[in-house]
Amino acid sequence: MPTFIAIGYGDADGYERTAPDVRGRAHAHDEKLREHGARMGIAGRPVQVRNPEGAGAHYQPGTFMSSDLPVAGFTIIEAKDLDHAAALAADTPCAVAHGVVEVWPLGD
Q1: Buried residues in 62-84 as b, exposed as e (16+ CB within 10 A)
Q2: How many whole angstroms separate alpha carbon 45 and alpha carbon 38?
Q3: CATH of domain 3-43+68-106
Q4: Domain of life, per the record (predicted)?
Q5: What are the structural domain ranges in the chain?
Q6: CB within 8 A of 83, min separation 6: which ones?
Q7: How does pLDDT run across 54-94, given as a tens digit for each residue?
């Protein structure tokens, strides 16, 4: 089955203004995804890694990509296709709490 990575973006403001019952359903949905093998994690502090021409690695704290909302977490899921993966992501906390989820297909 194809593998996808879902990147959730969201902030506390959007989460807090979402009705508690909606948030609860979203967290229950996450638990079902975990039970079916999805790997999830809350985003920590990133580091940028550069090693130009293999001449020596340099590490720099902070993000490289930018967005209107911070990265909240990641999920690795297996799904039939991109549409199925997107449907699975549609009921997750970031998607329902005024954030957004990107779903990326992972190639071999």
Answers
A1: eeeeeeeeebbbebebebeeeeb
A2: 22
A3: 3.30.70.1060
A4: Bacteria
A5: 3-43+68-106
A6: none
A7: 999 999 999 998 999 999 999 999 999 999 999 999 999 99
Q: Are 75 and 6 in contact (CB under 8 A)?
A: yes
Rounded Cα gap, residues 59 and 108, in angstroms: 27
Which region holds residue 79: left if phi is over 0, alpha if psi is between -120 and 50, else beta?
beta
Q: What is the CA radius of gyration of the chain?
A: 16
Handedness of CA 108, 59, 10, 22 (dihedral sign): positive
Which two tokens mark 73? 């977490």
Q: Does pTM top 0.85 for this prediction?
A: yes
